[in-house]
Design brief:
By secondary structure, this protein is mostly beta strands. The protein has 2 helices and 14 strands.
């Protein structure tokens, strides 16, 4: 080992012994969550990063807050909307774009049973499960069972028909708490289909199962979606 490297390693070891926190090597870039404006206040975080707004693929990474720092716990290739990404606050419904921003994750659902070890609230999809996307319905951007009379089937997703996509999924809290009509509904983190999504974020089935086993509702995980740089950079959220 080079003498300088040995000194740095010794210093890091002393700091770890004294504080329980391993410092980054001098000049090393802090982990992505440490560079973000907000991570939601919890101790778990998922980031979905694309190279640019026109990208349909990128990387999903899940993180844990340990010893005062964010530590990567897993990652997977991700897919985004067929028309790329767009700022969540100005998104329009039906544009096949994935909204950027920082979002809470209200609950999980799936056609299949929750993976063993899942602690997150999980709803099992049945034949009567729908996601209402009808702008004229009182149930806009909500799970419904059964579908209400004021929510047209042609303006809704019959969840059980989306297999394998909804084998397992997490609801992304985009336009969820105070829905704005026309901004978009039914944005999820789900299993890959055949290609790009209609606005959701998707990952391979195995990664989706790992995420559900990892997610702890008591640690308040959030999902941040964005690009590497520019107005929709992840570090802005």
């Amino acid at each position: 080992m080079h003498p300088r490297a040995a000194v740095l390693a010794s210093a890091a070891a002393l700091l770890l012994a004294a504080t329980g926190t391993l410092a980054a090597a001098p000049g090393a870039r802090p982990p992505l969550p440490d560079r973000m404006a907000d991570t939601g206040g919890g101790t778990q975080l998922i980031t979905a990063r694309a190279a640019r707004t026109g990208s349909t693929t990128g990387t999903l990474t899940w993180w844990d807050r340990r010893g005062g720092r964010w530590v990567e716990s897993g990652s997977a290739a991700a897919r985004f909307g067929a028309k790329g990404l767009t700022e969540g606050g100005s998104r329009k419904q039906g544009t096949n774009t994935t909204p950027t921003g920082l979002f809470r994750l209200p609950y999980a659902f799936g056609i299949e049973a929750a993976p063993p070890g899942t602690e997150y609230p999980y709803r099992r999809v049945t034949e009567d499960s729908w996601w209402c996307q009808d702008n004229d319905s009182r149930s806009y951007n909500r799970w419904t069972r059964p579908r209400p009379a004021d929510c047209r089937a042609t303006e809704s997703e019959h969840l059980i028909t989306y297999d394998p996509q909804y084998a397992h999924a997490l609801v992304i809290g985009f336009n969820y708490d105070h829905p704005v009509r026309g901004r978009g509904a039914g944005i999820f983190l789900h299993v890959n289909g055949r290609g790009a999504t209609a606005g959701c974020v998707s990952v391979p089935a195995g990664a989706m199962r790992r995420i559900l086993r990892w997610a702890d509702p008591d640690r308040r995980p959030h999902l941040a979606i964005g690009t590497e740089s520019g107005a929709t950079a992840l570090t802005r959220y």
